[in-house]
Amino acid sequence: MGWGIRGRLLHASCLLWLTLLVMGPAMGAGAADERVLVLGDSLSAAYNMPTESGWVARLSERLGPEGRVINAAISGETTAGARARLPAALERHEPSIVIIALGGNDGLRGISPAAMRDNLLAMIERSRAAGARVLLAGVRLPANYGTAFIERFRQVYRDVAERTGVRLIPMLLDGVAEDPSLMQSDGIHPNAKAQPIILQTVWSGLSPLLESDPEGSPAD
């Protein structure tokens, strides 16, 4: 029995409606309309390489056209400097997610872990007050800074994460800093080959935050 023109049009319309109904939630999931603000230092500022080679630029590519990444990383930045700049950055960019990847310069300059902790806590509180979810990324210090100081430094990130409940990437350069072939000649900064690895490390912490609530836990 033939459908007729009207019947075929009705059938096609029903199929289209069902397709949109099923695909609608999936199309809106993930990085849609996410605005990610990166607060960092030279490890995030594509130091000594083209900007497009850095992990932050690569993150923008991964999020796709519906997401936006603002790289507010500055070489030499400390937690105090970023804390001072944060209110203006939040007001200007209105991010939905803030990635804080700082602390290395605090440690290298001998700034007290207590001051670093207070700055990180203040940035997390300010970001959340602005409605943003927060991802915290830790960094490591060179071995010549001594075991005791290095452990106090690392403990700051754990303490801040435990106190605030933010997601923590224990070490931004995980799988990179231990491999000389992935580091620049200064032994401090990662090279271009390391950037995809850093991106994957960041993505492992960031992906659960996409379209989650401001407290950092996945939305229901």
TrEMBL record:
One Pfam family here: Lipase_GDSL_2
The SGNH hydrolase-type esterase domain, residue ranges: 38-194
InterPro entries: Ester_Hydrolysis_Enzymes, SGNH_hydro, SGNH_hydro_sf
Gene3D superfamilies per UniProt: SGNH hydrolase
Domain of life, per lineage: Bacteria
CDD domains attached to this UniProt entry: Lysophospholipase_L1_like
Stored PANTHER family: THIOESTERASE 1/PROTEASE 1/LYSOPHOSPHOLIPASE L1 (PTHR30383), THIOESTERASE 1_PROTEASE 1_LYSOPHOSPHOLIPASE L1 (PTHR30383:SF24)
This protein's name: Arylesterase
